[in-house]
## 1
Amino acid sequence: MKKIKIIGSTMTVGMAAMALAACGNNKKAADDNAAKTASKFPIAMPKKEIKQGGTLKFAYETDTPFAGIFSGELSMSQIDSDVSVFGSESLFGTTDSYKINDSGPATLRLNVKQKTATIEVKQGVKWSDGKQVVAKDLEFPYEIIANKATASERYTNSLADIVGLSEYHSGKAKTISGIEMPDGENGRKIVIHFKEMKPGMTQSGNGYYWELAEPYHYLKNVPFAKLKSSDQIRKAPIFFGPFKIGKIVRGQSITWVPNKYYWRGKPKLDKIVLSVISPNTASQSIKSHKFDVADVVPVQWDQVKGTKNVTFVGKIPLTYHYLGIRVGKWDAKQGRNVMDPNSKMGNKALRQAIGYAMNVDEVDKHYTKGLSFRVPTLIPAQFGSYFDKSLTGYTYNLKKANEILDKAGYKKKGKWRVQPNGKPLTITIAAMSGDATREPIIQNYLQQWHKIGLNVKLLGGRLTEFNSFYQKIQSDDPKIDMFIAGWALSSEPSPNDLYGEKAPSNYSRFVNAKNNRLLEEIDSSKAFNHKYRVEKFHEWQKNMLDEAYVIPVDNSYQVTAVNDQISGYSKRPSWTGWYNVGFIK
């Protein structure tokens, strides 16, 4: 399962402001101090004895209602994933370096010689209706993903490495030949046969097999075409995690109550109430102790940092925001991205100049005191040697941007530049709504591009709501030339499912032979050699920066304010989840 999710704009606070004044020494010192503070956040709450019972109040900050698609196979939204975290549980436990181990609900055994993965769910892992999770529940997600009637965006070239999945996807086969259930549908084991074994298969989020189950007995009578809108997915989903849904107020709140069949034991809490709140009111909610757990909006750090009786828990998440420059469309019939040879955004010089006109560093410091930071490449530094630390990315340089455009023939006619063929050039950008800083942030970007003579306009003259934004991006709205979006990444670094020719999530829709080759090499059998794989990752990052179809922007520390009376909460990758969170005695 490639655990990529689309993310909103709330965490994006480093998107430039209006024309910024130069920072004085005192302000710089304050920024540096905040950055040092961020690096010292604890990653977990102190371990203390926990009592049974109590209601935990959880704030979820977003300016848009959650869609409520409680299926990892059918939703691409980080919001839907976040609000379901109390019930939705991965099949596999991991170490803190994301390596799969036997601590989770199921075990994994890879056989490189036979090209198989055997997944066996543990006895006693039960759905919240009391039914044992069985082999068919492990196999059914592949049907959901690969059946075109569901319109799932999760079908990828990586999953197509499973024998028979592409034939099922194309309609040539009625079953997936490469997934066996040796003990039958009601057994607890599946064996997946691959065309080729891949180097990242030991890591969670590798993309070559799925890491969630779906209750076949509960969903089997729903036609695939109606699954996404069904009550079983939207109103009354069932889970095998520690909690189940007690009540949903669509888009606004979810009350979670214990799953009495949970395989690890009885959860400590009696209830978790998740409430959606505006990012603009987050700081006040934290200071007034309205919630037990609430994320800090980085632009509001100064307002909350002195709050008593809370612990600020933090980490750098596997996320980033990027500027996507659209040069084609998704061909659903062919199952691949197709470049438009006549795209006005097809000139590499234009894309590079756009990147150099973005003053990300300046604004991250201005708005977040160092809690946000520019990212130089599309591979985060958390991936260690795969990250090419020699690359600086698109640093702010208006002089260089102008020189690139001049050399490429983008001449000025009055205020604006025209295309090399003399035709007018108007570029439309889509950007998500968010907290109160979003409007001036985006207006600043427009001003920066205007400074180099590019007539860039905001889609519809305003910011776009999260769900509407991604609907437009995913459907290739012809009015959009550029967009600012974000990814919550998989814990296995391969970018194949994000930027490959056959990746629906490649929203820029770019395709070229070198990118295809490098992605194949990154995931090839040769890449079992770590040095070789590192070299290919570095080549890929250089190529992506040079082509500039996708320009990396920034990331932020993920900081959460937690009531000091809470124990068991953690941001470690190995954390076993919410069942052991509770109030201290």
## 2
Amino acid sequence: MQHIEHVGPGPVSPLAREEFVRMRDGVRLATDVYLPGAPAASDASPGDTVLIRLPYDKSGAYTYIPLIAEYFAQRGYRVVAQDVRGKFRSEGEALLFVNEADDGYDTIEWIVNQAWSNGRVAMWGDSYYGFTQWAAVSSQHPALKAIAPRVTGTQLGEPVRTAPGARTSGVEWGITYLYPLTYFHSQDAYFWDLDPERRPYSAQVEAVLEQLGSRSISYDQWYPRPVHLPRFPNGDPFDARPVPTLHTIGWWDNCAPLSWADVARIAQRPAWALNHFLRIESMDHESYYLGEPEEDRVAERSHEQLLAGLPRMLEPALAFFEVFVRGNGVPTDIPRVAYNLAGTPGMRASETWPPADAAPLDLFAHAGGELSPERPAAASDIEWVHDPADPVPSSVANAFAFLLDAPDEAALADRDDVVAFTTEPVADDLDLTGPVSATAVIASDGPGMDLFVRLLDVDERGRAFRIARGQVHLHEARQAAHVEVDLGQLGYRLPAGHRLRVHVSSSDAPEFIPQPGTGEHPWGATELTTNRQRLHLGGDRPFRLTLTVGTRADADETDTATKGIHHV
């Protein structure tokens, strides 16, 4: 029998008054109201409200919303924290994503009709409670004045789709199928571990559902026959009235590709672009930061550690709300782009991302393992065997908390199914500020092939730290094809003496579901077989890595940080 951890709702904070807010269909959502002044005050004068709608328990330890609410309330905000439909104390079905637009609208409408509301509402939150902000934007409630979504995207949690006739698609995360079985199985949360060595994975799910005695409608809508219900029934958020947005992304957030996809869409809509302010921090999904003291990198933070982290988390949103909700100041008080160049202190400001001085730099893979700007004239191939029974292991147990471990990935290059290419050490600090991508021609003797590309910083001791990554799936892989791999965006200083390394492979498990080698859906595959994978190098089909390099403001114009790369 599978060990399952059952987590129910925590006690309502003594600082809050719990209400049950009725939605348009009669379902009531559990809602905590925090008012400035005395705990659970009922006679507060009208003021601005911060709304937080989440599925992780408004009263639970995981998201520590009572501490966050108290911080906002100390700045004079009324705070409304709500369990989304079907979760913890709220009524209704636990169905991912599709109810958040209308429920967001109805909750805002309830807020503006309370005596303690002045009719102005802002929203804040991470991940799913960042998504609920985009859903509320799509509902176009006029009282929503600003949002501050962090580490999220409008397509959060959406299973991979393949466009008709396309040769390539994304690679599926394991969490795509596990999330609706844990947090969204039903009202409470149920946590259990998938055995990565026991196939099919779908059979393990069925055993757990039988043990729980009920199914998950969120899981059943996606597997085995996906039904993509509209998550924005009132229209796309970016077709709605633009709402001032402080958009926070983490360089090491595993969900960052979803955030950057939204940034690209916003850039195509001038009215939205005028209302969009980007903040990029050296953090992961769970708000662990690069370079923070080791004593702060613990899986369960203490009460004191949580309190100490609140200013870093909340002050940017408070400054933003001061301008766009309270009207104190002007939009130019907020940097259009604020970012941390990882490896350096503080935040930098720019009018654009990437910064205007950024320029592309191409590096090419060579058969001898070198990575350099010189394009190899001779064509060659390199091969490896993908074994789904022994996939390349994911470097961390929790992909959402990559910086908790900040692992050394150098040993992965010793595997026969990982191909590595490395530059010479750079002569001076090299600032990488912008998109990273790879282009390749690949093939397999199997029906499908996953290509994983990881970019690493290798220090003088040989420690390899991952700084960017991307992956793509090739359909009909027996026929060679040109593929493009998006490795996301980088804001990173490569110190002098360090090298860049690329790892190329066909798996990263269990974070990504490994291909079985047979062409079956990897979640339900029963048979496994090895595949021989091929990567072309040089000639008219090179493997190319394209970086974006910034100009060092403190660099000598006659010297360039890339000279260590240019002379290999």
## 3
Amino acid sequence: MTGSSSLPGPGAEDSPRDRGLGPRAAAVLVFGSSAAVLVVEIVALRLLAPYLGLTLETSTLVIGIALTAIAVGSWLGGRLADQVDPRRLIGPSLGVSGAVVALTPAVLRTAAEWAPALLLLTASSAILVPGALLSAVTPIVTKLRLTSLAETGTVVGRLSGVGTVGAIVGTVLTGFVLVSRLPVSGILIGLGTLLVVGSAVVEWRTRRWRGRVTPALALAVVAGGLGTAVAPGGCDAETRYHCARVVADPDRDSGRTLVLDGLQHSYVDVDDPTFLEFAYVRAIASAVDAAFPEREPLTAHHLGGGGLTLPRYLAATRPGTRSLVSEIDSGVVRIDRERLGLRQGAGIDVRVEDGRLGLRALAADSRDLVVGDAFGGVSVPWHLTTVEAMADVRRVLVPGGLYVANLIDHGGMDFARAEVSTLDETFEHVAVMGEPADIGLDRAANSEGGNLVVLASDRPLDLRATQKALDARRTGWRTTTGDDLTSWIDGARPLTDDYAPVDQLLQPSTTRRGD
């Protein structure tokens, strides 16, 4: 008979109520599974950061895999729901995804340390499998809730809206609450536990506990927790942005290295702040010492804090110096205070804020010195590299003030050239310090890349005094400016807020060192 509104199919002899899936239960399942997909996506990005870096490419990769999982899961879920009793699908989808999610931290960290060639495959599977299974829940539940064509639009629209709200809540909850309060491994194990418990509840409600796999899935969650405890690559602390460790120097009792996402970011001597281990820090100190009279107190702003090596040095060598530090990661600041000996009243004011916003809030002509040393793992915060950002640096510097920045690049040094070109657009006088091969002064040697330090000011730079200070600290570094620097820049395009492909220009090191 034409115009029939019935929708026969697998399990169609039962109403939704008989199947143990009323409208509220359906909404909870769709909401929870959609939220879980986004939790997995965001936490996976954080879990991969120590090994792949928090770059645009890493973010794009994770988002692409997650969207693929959603597409595949939605398609297969709908197809299977038309061929199999949907009541048989929901519980296993939740349970298996929960087991995979709980095992992810241990498996991924083990692969990264012991089989790095398999890292991308492992990471892809850890996102694809649970993402697809959880995305299949919405079409399966929709099939169970549909009983006539007359309500198709209402049911599909309602559940689609609920799923979207769940994804929004999962995103906001993870980004603003969970990551700042829990380790990422704890988030995934907790989510896995909730999914397995949800699977058991669904099995009981819809099939009166005819499923037999729930105990095995619970064991997988337990194994994930135990595996995470013994897996390599652990952190002393998981901050909002980094996997952080503090490593004692075996050759210097008071020496500590701050390691963020596997890279050495800062070396601090907690007893002697004038001891500078990394060559680039010695180069920055040399530039500052050459630019300002000895022991003259300065008013400085630091874009990026890390271990606060340079603010401590300035406080020790220039009593009365006031250093304002913009550090975006509150967890790193906590480590500075608890593990790296930062004390109150040292003339160092650390603000937990984005560096660009902190710079914008400063008054014009208020700083003698601005230091740029902000990095996120192997990536560079692009919004701190542009002509517009450098114009703000110039605005806050007093006439004749100095901007000094640490740059890291390898290979063709494309990012470093572009950033120096950017500064050349903004300041009257620019110079670069680095290994001779890296800055074009030793063409016979191969450039290995690494750290460079760029100086910029509206007054002439005393490069003779700077070189003398570099030599005194035995850095082996040289300085270049003028025509030699122009030749090294080689026409690189300046970076702007509208054009700053930093992640594409930057060539990271193949090692796990920060200096």
